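Figure-free illustration: sequence to structure, shown twice.
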Amino acid sequence: MKEGVASIVVVCLTFIFTSAQTVPFKELYIDQYVDHFNFVSYGETIFKERYLLQDQWWKPGVGPIFFYTGNEGSIEEFWDNTGFVFDIAPEFNALVVFAEHRFYGKSLPFGNKSFSHPYVGLLSIEQALGDYAVLLSTLKQELNATSCPVITFGGSYGGMLSAYMRFKYPNLVAGSIAASAPIFLLSANSKRDFFWEDVTKDFNAVSPKCVDRVKKAFVMMDVISKKPGGLKELSTTFALCKPLTSMNDYHHLLGWIRNAFTYLAMMDYPYPTSFMGNLPGYPVKVACGMILNNTDAVKGLYQASEIFYNSTGRLCFDIWADFIECADPTGCGLGFNSRAWDYQACTEIHLPAGSNNITDMFPVLPFTNPIRNQYCQKTWGVAPRDLWGQAQFWAENIKSASNIVFSNGDLDPWHRGGVTQAPNPSVGVIMIKGGAHHLDLRSKNKDDPASVIQARNQEKDYIKKWIAEFRQSQ
C-alpha cells in the first residue's frame, strides 16, 4: 500500500454536539483508494472517507471497538439515532467509530462529479466493505489496538453491511449486530411482494376500518382524477404548491402518499422521533385516528400523509421535491444520497416490488423486474446483476455464518426480507414484538416495550460472549 494512503487525517478536533443526543464526536477523515480491487484503472487515486469517533469510554489497547457500518446517508444521522451503542459503550470500555459509506454524506470520491460515468461505477457494496476493512486495520495499528476485538453494528442496509463484514472479514470482526437487515433480498429468487402487505398489516392492527377507509379514499381519488376539473380538485385537497396537470402527475401524487405511509410504518416507534422525519409516538395509530375521524376519506388520507411531510408547518407541498421516484419503490430519499441509493438499487440491491391493491391497501403501482431493468438501463446505462449479488453476499445460504445476531421487529415491513430463523447455533435471531425498524439500536427510552429491553440485553450477552471468545483465541 502506498505510504500515507491509509493514514488518518484529523479535520475537526473540537467536539460537535448532535441535536438528538448529548454524545459528542470527533469528525475525522481517512484516505482511501477509490478502487480497492483494480490496481490499474484508477492507479493511486484516493478520496477522503469521513468517520466519527468517540473515545471517552475507551480503555486504550484493551477495550473493544464498536464499529457502525454506515448506510445510505450522512453518517451523523445514524450517530444521532443509534443510541444503543453509546448506552453500552461505557460498560464495555469501548471505542466508538461510525464510518460513512462512500458516495454518501461528505464521502464523495469525485465531488459533484461522483454520479457521472465512469465514476459512479466505484459505488458498490464490495468497495464500501473494503473501505471499512482498511479503516479498521489502520485504526488498530495507529491506536495500538491490535488485540482489541471489533463488534460491528448496523441497521437496515447498514445491518446488511454489518453482517457482510463478518462474512467477508472474520479476521477483523469478532461479531456483528445486524438489525432489520433484509439480506435475503439479494437472492435472485427472493419473494418481493411482502413489503406493502406488511405496511397494510400495521394499519390493520390498529383498526381494520382504517385499512378499509384508505382503500375507499384511493378509489374516490381515482374517480375524481377522471372527471373534468378533478386534478385541480385533488391539487386543492392535498395543498399542492403546483397543481396537477396530467395523469403522470396524478400517479406521482399516489407515490407521494404511499411513501408517507411507508415511513409511518417503518418509524412506528412508541415515542416521538426525528429520524427520517419528525414523527409523533405511534404514528400509525395517529394516522388512523385522522383517517377515521374525517368525514371525507380523501381529506383523511391527506391529513395522514401530512404527518410525515409537514413537520415544519408548510402551507403547501411540492410533491416532486418531497418524493423522487427511483429503483426503490419504498423511496430513495433526496439529494445526492438519493442518486447513490438509486444506483445501488439498479446494480446489486434488488428491493421490493410495487403495490398491487390485492394483498395491500395501496393503488396498483407496479415495479416488476422488466420495469426495473428498463428504468436502470435508461437512467444509469446498467443492467442489474442479481445472480452476482446472490453469489457474492451468500443470499439465503448462510449456514456457514457465525457470531451474528439478526434482529427484527414484527411491525417492521422489512422483516420478512431478513433472517427470522437461525441457520445454525452460532447465529442468533431475535424477534421484537411491537418493534418497528431497528428499534433495538435506538437509545433506551421510558416508553420502550419490554420486548426491546429484552432484545438489547440478549445482544449484550452475545457481545460479551464474542469478546470472551476473541480474547481466549489470542
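We now fold a second protein in the same way, so the two outputs can be compared directly.
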Amino acid sequence: MMEIVAAADSDERGLSLLRVVNILQRVVVFLHSFTVDKTRGQPPTSTSASKAQQMPGMSEEEVAKKVKEICQELILSQESLKEVCDRLQEEINKGLGKESNPEATIKCFPTYVRELPNGKEKGRFLALDLGGTNFRVLLIELGDKCTMESRIYAVPQPIMIGPGEGLFDHIADCLACFIKERSLGTELLPLGFTFSFPCKQEGLTKARLARWTKGFKCEGVEGRDVVELLKKAIAKRGDVKIKICAVLNDTTGTLMSCAWKNHNCRVGLIVGTGTNACYMEKIEKVELWDGDLEEPHQVIINTEWGAFGDNGCLDFIRTEYDNTIDRESLNPGKQLFEKMISGMYMGEVARQVIVRLVSEGLLFDGKTSDILQEKGSFFTKYISEIESDEDGDYNNCYAILEELGLNNATDADCANVRHVCECVSRRAAYLAGAGVALLLNRINEESVSVAVDGSVYRFHPHFHNLMVEQVSQLVKPGIKFDLMLSEDGSGRGAALVAAVASRSSATR
C-alpha cells in the first residue's frame, strides 16, 4: 500500500489510483474508530464537535498567534524575493560563461534544440519518458490533431538504486513489450527520449548524466552518455528497431509541447516531484555554445535550477526544516532550491513544522502519533487536499489527520494545520514565480507564454494564482505573460523534438 501511495504522490498520472486508496483508508479508519468507541460503551466521538484543546492558560486566539509566529520564517518578503531574482541572475550568468561554468551550481546546459514547432509536424513517433518512480512509453501521431496511446511502467525501488545496467535493461524490456503489443516491430520509428535528470548535452542525441536526483542512485551512469546506454540495452535484446532522434529533459518537452499550439512560448517549467526550468536564449549570450552560428541564433537552455543555492547563496532564506531535509536526503548539499519547492519535499517540510508545534503543545493537546513521527508520512498531496477545503470547512483535514492516527483534532487544530500548509505552498509558489520572472526579464520580449507541468502545479488549488501574483510583482513593466498548462509535455514534447529534428535534417 505504501509503495502505491508513494508512487502516486510523486506522479500525477497515479492520482486516480491514489484517490481510491485514500477512500479505502478513510473507510477503514472510520470503522476502526467506531469499533474502539463502541468497546468503551460510548457513541463515536465527533472530532469536529470536540472541545478545543490548547496549552494551559492559552486561548485559541493566543495559540493561533503563536503558530503564526513560528511559521513566520517560511514567509518571504518582497525584498527577499527580489534578492532571490538577483542571485539567480548572477548564477545563470555563471552557468552560461565558458570559464565560470565548471564552478557554477546552475549548469545552464545548451539543449541543441534551436527550432520550435511550427504546428505542421506530421508522422508517427515513439517517445520514452523517464523522470520519476514511473516512466512512460508513448506512440504519438502528429497531424491536424495529436493522437497518443501510452503505457506507464513502474521503476521498482531496487532498480532505482541498483546498477545502471539494470535500469536501462528494464527500460529496454518495457519498450520492447510496448512495441510488440502494437505490432510495430517491422516499422522503424523515430524516438524522442525524455530523460529528466541533470545532463550535459553534447548534441541532440548525446547527453552525459551529471548527477542523479529524485531518489535515483544507479551506479555506473554518472558521466556517461545515457543515449548510448539505452542503445546498448536495446541492442542486447536484438528484437527492437528504433532510431533515437533526440534526448531531452521534461522542461524542454514541456516548452515544445505548448509551443506547438502557442508560438509565443519561450519558457518551460516543471513543479512536480522535482523542479526545473528552461528558456530560449540568444546564442550570443551562451559562451558554452560550440555549435554552428547559422540561423536560428537561439537555443533552449536547460538551467537545472534545482541546484540553485548549492553554493550557499540561498542560506539567507533557508530554515531549520530545510537543513534537516537536506541532511537526511540521498544527496546532502545538492538540489537545495528543489528541496524548498518540489513535491518530493513540501510535505516533509510541513510535517516537520507540525511535529514542532505538537512538541510545544500548540497542536492536538501536545499528543502525537507514531505515523506522524515517521519521515515522509505527510504526503505533499495532503497539502493540496487540505487547502482544497472551503474556508471554515475542514473535512479533508480531519480525514487526513485520522489517516495519520490523530483522532482528537479540533477545528482550531485544523485551522492551524492549514496555516502551516499555506505557508509551505506559498513559499514554494513564490520562489518558482520569482525564478520565472527572472527568465522573462532575461528574454525581454513583449509577450511570452510559460509552459508549466508537474503534479504540484496541476493539483494544488492555488499554486497557479500564487505564481501569477508573484511573477506580476517582479517582471519588468510592459512584459505580458501567461502560464499555460502543458498537456503531456514530457511525452508529446519528446515526439515534437524528434519531429522537428527529422524535419530539419530533411531540409538540409
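Summary for the second example: Confidence is low (pLDDT under 50) at residues 1-54.
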